[in-house]
């Protein structure tokens, strides 16, 4: 490629860029997910995140869009809360009727030394 110009108003550039490589870089999905998760952190700037990882901001924006559409699975964050399924230790047979006692309508959750009890209260009649 020739870097000469006939335009005398344009100063000659002393900077030459050499592109080495064999084409596009392949980004593994787990690395994309880490980069996207970093870009979603409060105060993060997509251009800065992209520069740190050696990719283009447009790529990060595309990966963020794919993550929102569910096409890219992000790593689980320790800072976010999520719901977990509740599994009963003892289950009633399908034909069993609730007894109406307060014990039958109480759910107890114990986790890491904390205990939460949720009891169903009968509706008040007016």
Description:
This protein is α+β, with helices and mostly antiparallel strands and 126 residues long. It is built from three helices and two strands. The chain has a two-stranded antiparallel sheet with strand order 1-2. α1 packs across α3 and α2 crosses α3. It is rod-shaped and about 90 Å long. The relative contact order is 0.09. The model has no long low-confidence stretch (mean pLDDT 76).
How are the SSEs placed, and which strands pair?
Layout lengths: L28 H11 L6 H8 L3 H12 L37 E6 L2 E6 L7
Antiparallel strand pairs: 1-2
Helix pairs in contact: 1-3, 2-3
Summarize the structure.
With 126 residues, the protein is of the alpha+beta class. 25% of the residues lie in helices and 10% in strands.
Keywords, please?
126 residues, 3 helices, 25% helix, single chain, alpha+beta
Proportion in β-strands: 5-15%
- Biggest sheet, spatial arrangement of strands: 1-2
Summing up helix and strand content along with how strands pair, one would put the structural category as: alpha+beta
Average residue-wise pLDDT: 76
How many H/I helices? 3
Oligomer: single chain
**Low-confidence runs of at least 5 consecutive residues:** none
Give the % helix.
10-25%
| Biggest sheet layout | 2 strands, antiparallel
Distance between the termini: 89 Å
Number of DSSP strand runs: 2
Radius of gyration: 29 Å
Shape: rod-shaped
Helix and strand string, N-terminal first?
A: HHHEE
């Amino acid at each position: 490629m020739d870097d000469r110009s006939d335009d005398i108003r344009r100063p000659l550039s002393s900077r030459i860029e050499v592109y080495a490589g064999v084409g596009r870089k392949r980004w593994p999905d787990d690395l994309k997910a880490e980069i996207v998760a970093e870009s979603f952190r409060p105060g993060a700037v997509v251009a800065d995140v992209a520069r740190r990882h050696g990719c283009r901001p447009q790529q990060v924006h595309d990966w963020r869009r794919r993550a929102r559409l569910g096409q890219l699975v992000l790593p689980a964050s320790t800072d976010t809360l999520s719901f977990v399924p509740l599994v009963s230790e003892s289950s009633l047979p399908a034909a069993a009727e609730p007894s109406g006692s307060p014990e039958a309508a109480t759910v107890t959750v114990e986790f890491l030394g904390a205990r939460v009890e949720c009891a169903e209260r009968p509706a008040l009649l007016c």
